Structures are given as structure tokens and as C-alpha cells.
Amino acid sequence: MSVQNPADLARLLGTLPHRPPFRFVSSLDALEPGKSTRGVWHILGDEDFFRGHFPDAPLVPGVLIAEALAQVSGLAWLSGTKEAIGMPARLAQVNVKILTGITPPASITLESTLAKEMGSLAMFDVRASIAQETGQMTIATGLIVLTKAMPDEGEFHGGTPKHQLKPG
Amino acid sequence: MPSHETLERVKRIVRESMKLDPATPIEDAMQLMGGEYDMDSLDVLLVVTNIEKEFRVRIREGTMDKSAFATVLTLSTFVETLPREDQ
Fold this sequence. Notes:
The structure holds 2 protein chains of 2 kinds. Chain A is an alpha+beta fold.
């Protein structure tokens, strides 16, 4: 479904626990509850983090692109069931390859599709892109895992707690 | 007893999913949970997803229990019980 109505957009974005200035989804183009999301992060260039990243040479931080992809993943997941809304979901694993640097202003399209859900974990295939004359250019791609609980709290606890992330 | 081919494919998936050195030897009886490499829930999710892609099977929640992930051998045996999606 397309989300053009401002009230619907506000309600859906409100299902995320994130709030400005740490919400990196500006609009939603498509949402298939429980399955996939496509949104856009509009970056103006006056965001506070550009004062330090980097002085005189602003560059969108790759970690924030990964965070934005995690947020649209959360939107797909949290909109899936009535029970999921308001559920605390946390980032469990990030494996996102940043392919190119992006300077502001920019509109980054964020896409996320649920690949597998198991126990308290949900894995998403994610892609970030920007519009070019020749079409959408991928700027980041990979996978993100969200969890309803911290890793190793579920039934698949394998022994010694291991909360380390495995960046790709 | 799973086939040699299935065992080798599962070992490759485990090696890649766990980011092990390609030269790391993996025995059939290697413990996946609680052993030297002690997979956690994130590792299990990645291995399951990669098994689904590699073998074109679907592993549904409730069809798999912890015992399938005891060793490479038990995981390979479990994989061979799964119907291929294109069949």
C-alpha cells in the first residue's frame, strides 16, 4: 500500500520508537505489513551531525544509512501484526556494504524485505539507493537482523552469551 | 546417514556463515552449539537462511528443534529430510 496521507504517515512512523533527531525515515512510498517497506530519507544538509562529519566536507555517515535501513525494516516488522505495534525491537546484527559516499542534499530511497523470521529474530534484505538520470543507483546493500529480545535470550541460546556483532 | 555431498555443502555453509577461515577443518561430529564455535541464535538464523537458499528448501518454525543443530552430521541429516520447494 502507498502511504501518502500525512495522518497515516505520522501514525505509521509513530509505531517506531525513534523520534527526531534520530528518525531517518521522512516518507513512505510503499508498505506491505509484515513483509516489506520502501521509504525515503530526505537529507537537507543542515542536520547537526554534518558539523562534525565532516567540517567543510559534509558526507552522510554510513552508519546512519544502515540505521535508516534498520528503521524501515522495523516499520515492516512492527506493522505486521496488531501485537507487534509498540513492541520493543532492537538491532541485533548489521551486515551492510556501503558502496559510495553521499553528500547532502540528497534523497535516499530505503528498501527492506523480510527474508526470514525465526523465534525472536527477523532478517531483512536491505538496499539504499539514490535517483540518477539512468535510474536508481544502489549506494548500500546487505542484511539487517532485528530482535524482539536481545540475542541469546530466546530458545536457541547456544551456551556462552555472545552479543558481539559481526560487521561484514 | 547423509550423503557426502550434503555434508560438504552444509560444512561450506557453516564455514561461510560463521566467517571461519576456509582452511578451518570441520569434522562431521563438530558440535555446532556448545562446542568450540558455539553458535548463537543469530548464527542459527544465518545458517538456516543460507541452507534454504542453497538447497531450495523451506525450514518452517516448529519443524526444527535444537537437536538438528547438535552437529554438522545431525544438521545434514535434517536437511535431507526436507522436501525441495521445486518438487
